[in-house]
Specification:
Elements lengths: L1 H27 L2 E2 L6 E3 L6 E3 L3 E7 L8 E5 L4 H7 L20 H10 L2 E11 L2 E8 L3 E8 L1 H8 L16
Amino acid sequence: MNGKIIGVAIMLSALIGGISLYYLQIYGFYEDVAIEDVQLVSVVSDLPEPIPFANFEAIDADSSPIRYRACFTTDLSLALLSETYVGLENATPRNAPGWFECFDAEAIGAELAAGTALPFLSQKNVEFGVDRIVAITADGRGYAWHELNDCGEKAYDGTIVGEECPRRPDITQ
């Protein structure tokens, strides 16, 4: 009898732990972003500049620097954007939680592959080793996410970062 009670207790603990872990990963850490901001890096100044936008929705989480996702609309054409702002060769949107319905990484990736959307650099080193990427479609829908840059990939996989990367801030808490 004692074995059954212990077995049930272990199963219930595992179930509660699993449900808690699922909730925290999908819902718990995310918060709405209060500051509405869309910027792209200018080809002239090499600095981020704000662009006009509307219908901004964004989420982020302190638990990881790459959890940022945003959706918006803009009236700027792809031709104007590609002449004025730094474009990217490759960009792969990261999956968003299913409940953040405006951001469908698979559909955004398909538009990027088809050429009906173009990726741009929004901000370099939003956090150490992490860049903000923006993709804008031909019909004016925009999406933003964070992606590891070369320095971030090196820093997080343990290889030597080198002099071309900015100094990583010390973390003290």
